[in-house]
Every structure is written in structure tokens, then in C-alpha cells.
Amino acid sequence: MAVNLALYAPITQAGWNPARDFGPRVIACAAGWGKVAIPGPQNGFWVYIVGPCLGAPLGAALAEFGLWGVWCRPRSKNCA
């Protein structure tokens, strides 16, 4: 846990849950904190916006084609 905090705190201010990071940033921005809230001091805000948007389709494609064998032919011996 300490290593993860040391690695991710400079980027995301140690907020690992996107919902718990994004909400307070929106409120802080609305309260007048401006660029300190969004995108943040290290631009870590974009990690939570771009990461899930890219990671979800990539993870789904890997699962679909890799784990569930969509690329396998129906009568192939390698398919489950």
C-alpha cells in the first residue's frame, strides 16, 4: 500500500476511486478553486477521464478475443 501511494500520489493526489476524486474536484472548481481543482496540480484529473474510456473497451476486447475465444474457429481443438 505504501508503494502504491508513493507512486500514484503525485499524479492523482492518492485518490484511487474515480468517483471519489471527480466529485470533490467539480465542487472545488464550482467554489472558485479553478485550475487547482481541474485539472489539478499535476494534471492527474485526466487519468480518471481517459483511463476508463480507453481501458474498458481494451479490457472487453481482450476478454472477448482472448479469454472467450471469438478468434477460434468452431471446430478447432484449441477452443474451449
Question: What's the gist of this structure?
Answer:
With 80 residues, the protein is mostly helical.
Structure, described:
- This protein is mostly helical and 80 residues long.
- The protein has one domain (2-67).
- The protein has helices spanning 2-12, 18-33, 45-67.
- The radius of gyration is 19 Å and the shape is elongated.
- The model has no long low-confidence stretch (mean pLDDT 76).
What is the first-to-last residue Cα distance?
A: 37 Å
Mean of pLDDT = 76
> What's the β-strand tally?
0
Largest sheet: none
SSE run: HHH
The structural class is: mainly alpha
Shape: elongated
Helix tally equals 3
Helix residue percentage: 55-70%
Domain tally: 1
User: Taking Cα atoms only, what radius of gyration do you get, to the nearest Å?
Assistant: 19 Å
How much of the residues is beta strand, in percent?
under 5%
Low-confidence spans: none
Keywords:
80 residues, mainly alpha, 0% strand
Blueprint (SSEs and pairs):
Layout lengths: L1 H11 L5 H16 L11 H23 L13
